[in-house]
Amino acid sequence: MKHVGVVDILQHYFRIDGITCFYIVYTKSRKNMLHKSIDKKRNKINNVFMKSIDDKQLNDQDIYQLRQLRESIVEMPHDEAEAAIVKIKEYLKEYDFSSALELKYSLMMKLGEIHGRNSEVEDSAEYFKTILNSPDAQAFTILIRKASANLAITYALQDLYREALDIWYTLLKDEKDVDLKLNLLSNICVAHGIIGEYHDSIHNAYQALELADKHGLPERRMDPLQNLGAAYEKMGEPQKAMKYWLETLDLSRKYKSVRREFESLGNISLAYVQLKEYKKALSYAFDALKLRKKHLPEESLGISYNNIGFVYENAGDMENALKYYKMGEQWYQKLRRNSALAHCYLNQASLYLKMGDLSKSLIKLNEASEIENALIVMQNNSQITAMYAKVYAALGDYQKAFEYSEKNNRILEDNLNNLRKTTISIKEADYYRGKIEDQARQYKEQNTELKAKNRIISASTKELKEINKSLAENVEVMNWLISVISHDVRAPLSNFGRMLTMMISGEFPREEHDEVLTSMKHSSDSIVKLINEMLDGIRLQRQNMSFHTTIELQNIVPILYSVMEIYQPMAMQKKIRLSFNAQTKEINARVDADLLKILVRNLLNNAMKFTAENGAVTIKARVLQNKVEIVVEDNGIGMHESALSDLRKGQGIARSKSDGSLGLGLVLCRDSLKRMKGSIKIDSEPDKGTRVRILLPAK
Prior knowledge:
Layout: H1 4-11, H2 19-29, H3 38-49, H4 60-72, H5 78-94, H6 101-117, H7 121-133, H8 141-157, H9 161-174, H10 178-194, H11 198-214, H12 222-234, H13 238-254, H14 258-274, H15 278-295, H16 302-315, H17 318-335, H18 338-355, H19 358-374, H20 381-394, H21 398-416, H22 424-457, H23 462-493, H24 496-505, H25 513-542, E1 552-555, H26 557-574, E2 577-582, E3 588-591, H27 593-609, E4 616-624, E5 627-634, H28 641-648, H29 666-675, E6 679-685, E7 689-697
Parallel strand pairs: 2-4
Antiparallel strand pairs: 1-3, 4-5, 5-7, 6-7
Helix pairs in contact: 1-16, 2-6, 3-5, 4-6, 5-6, 6-7, 6-8, 7-8, 8-9, 9-10, 10-11, 10-12, 11-12, 12-13, 12-14, 13-14, 14-15, 14-16, 15-16, 16-17, 17-18, 18-19, 18-20, 19-20, 20-21, 21-25, 21-26, 22-23, 22-25, 23-25, 26-27, 27-29
């Protein structure tokens, strides 16, 4: 939802033969518009042809004049160009072009490009399809390739990215012209980026860079650099994205590419937002707006307004954020940019939620949902349902919040098995698992070396014992994390292959592929988020919790609810009923939000791990005089008294599923509670389950 600016800018990269190129020249020429009536201009063009439209046979002068119109129309003032378009359409309808077929189809190509520029995408596509389906047009090879390329652009503008990619990859195989090949690679990068296939986008961007360098075309590095930045930004690497966008900005100024310059400025602004450098973000965002105002018509400013609103929201200036979101909304509506408008409404819904105006948040959410339901590819469906859950939770309607949360989980679950093998989340999970395994091996080797030194020295000093103990704990931390990833992450992903097989074999309707992949991307992001949050917790354990904490009186209900949402996909996968019961919608306790999340995540993770299929895990919260009680309980395998005794003495971490230990993280939980002046009590019975009770200060 929050990266609408980046997505918007990406959609402007489609550059093959016409639509965007026409757009650039056309908007430049608007500055020289002659404000005369279209009728007068039409009369002027009629005079140029020096004949009546009733004469249906083309002569040499007609052909010459039509060719002149075809070449000069993009340089005409607006109203004169409108009249020229009407005249060309009249000739195509009324005249016999059998002696000038190349002229006929090149004029149709030009009309298709113009309709595309004016956001009349369906009309544009019809012209290109007519050319491609006309037997007597097949002799004009270059024209056919251009029509195919432009048809792909119209598909992309209708969110039909798979259809567009099919055409572009087909054209790329046979394309010899370097310039057109670079355009194709750029479009392919953008399409892959929009549907979340960032590795494919990066691969094609590097191909384009190599091609530009090989042929000595430094100015053509701008598109692949821009696309690399977009992919890395989406992968959560703003510093790397910034590197590529700054290089693009330098090249755009060197080669005087105004469009690339304001796109780069906008992207750099969004990267600075991720880095929380809001002054720099605003500076770049306003520079982008200033440049757009200078070179583009006013209706093209929606992207900049929306991006500025996004910066203000993250900086905490809600008043200005709302002002600029509204300005962006106004122009998105005029341009019928539905996907971008849905994003803009989602941004406003999020903003109103932060401001506490829940009724307006719901209104904007309903507007976003209405637009989303009409789109061919529902890119925001999961985000909308997740936002509904948050708004209803804030309203205290936990039943509806839970219903929307379950609906969102169903959306994610329905798409899990359709994720492509090259998807970034699987590769990230494999990458982190490999890193963890390497780290675990390193710690084991260090531990073995230290033990050998202890035997040689034969003096087990207290210092060496402490080091040895620390290393052993870290090894078990790594081993535990590998186990969690292997079981709790790999298990939900194990069904991907079956869904892919269904897609390949045709059992799954092709028209639903894009929607499924888009929703699955959001689902896989949730799994990656779970991995990252577990890694954060382990890092805190290894660093002995040596980080800054902010302990203050705050409402813990939304914090607990957000943690529960993370584990809902895992619960659905294991068919476990995960629920949250709060005494009231506002329960205040003196806590650090991050420490509380770490604490509850550890308890939930163990409860989920040791609860069998069709079991239940419950989170409860209530006020007890001057204390707040949080309970996490399950009906899983439970623990024996000996294991409980070890845990209470601070000696136990998980060894196997059979002994039902609470698992790694108890030390982490105790450290967190110590900092927040809280306490923990664990009760458990074999084959009945475990109940963990947390007490926190209420004042």
